[in-house]
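Q: Could you predict the 3D structure of Ribosomal biogenesis, methyltransferase, EMG1/NEP1?
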Amino acid sequence: MVRPYAIKGRKRKKNKTERYDKEEDEEDNVGFVEEEEEGGEGEKDGAQKKLKGGVTESDEEKAEAAVQELAGIPVNLNEQVGNDMNTPGVIFILEKASLEVAKVGKSYQLLNSEDHANFLRKNNRNPAEYRPDISHQAILNILDSPLNKAGRLKALYVRTEKGVLFEIKPHVRIPRTFKRFAGIMLQLLQKLSISTVGKREKLMRVIKNPVTQYLPVNSRKIGFSHSSEKLVDMHDYVATLDKDATLVFVVGAMAHGKIENDFVEDYISISGYPLSAAYCITRITNALERKHKIL
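A: Sure. Here are the predicted structure tokens for Ribosomal biogenesis, methyltransferase, EMG1/NEP1:
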């Protein structure tokens, strides 16, 4: 009997549109696919499992171990503003973050200038531009601040150099070491979301651009650039801002360059010297903590 080949299903075309986490499709992004390999039983036993994105099982184990640290930061419930995005608060946006995943050897890794300098040079890339540690330090400074622990931080968004936008919940406890942070970022950019252990709450997830659709209507958007001609004292500057408006601070998380966003209403400089992203954020949070009398 001749096999009816016409019944065989057609291959689906790959969707090349922007990849981001969808609440209803989250299960589609999780799971293992066993790699088929030719050879004897010894080769099959040594074959590693891979994720759909090409991440090896060893990479996944490292990322899962890092997830164990995402237990959450304790907040002062008496002073917590609440989860309503329309209530006054603070939102941080880290722009041009150097968070890029590439296949180095047999596994996918988060590129950085220290571990992948030779790989970057071979691919005609400047190693000085691959600094994910800048984003790590900036995120830690935001989440560790008394401003966040008092419940004033409404949201934290990070947009990579490649334009991938993801959200980090204010109560997330980011790994302290860079190696474990790299494992978390690798998992996030591959799976598109990271949930709490044993729960359904998503602590980090890739979301759809642009970031302006997630900002409150009554928000004031402020960008920071050393090249700005408007040099201000941060404590005096925040004292003049409307208490009823949500403040959105846009800070660059790259080694060199400046941010240029159309939605930013005011570009300011807070020092006569170039500052790192982490120290710039420290000055911002300190000024806001003094304004709201957070000790």
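Q: Anything worth pointing out?
A: Helices lie at 41-46, 57-67, 117-122, 132-144, 146-149, 178-191, 234-239, 277-291.
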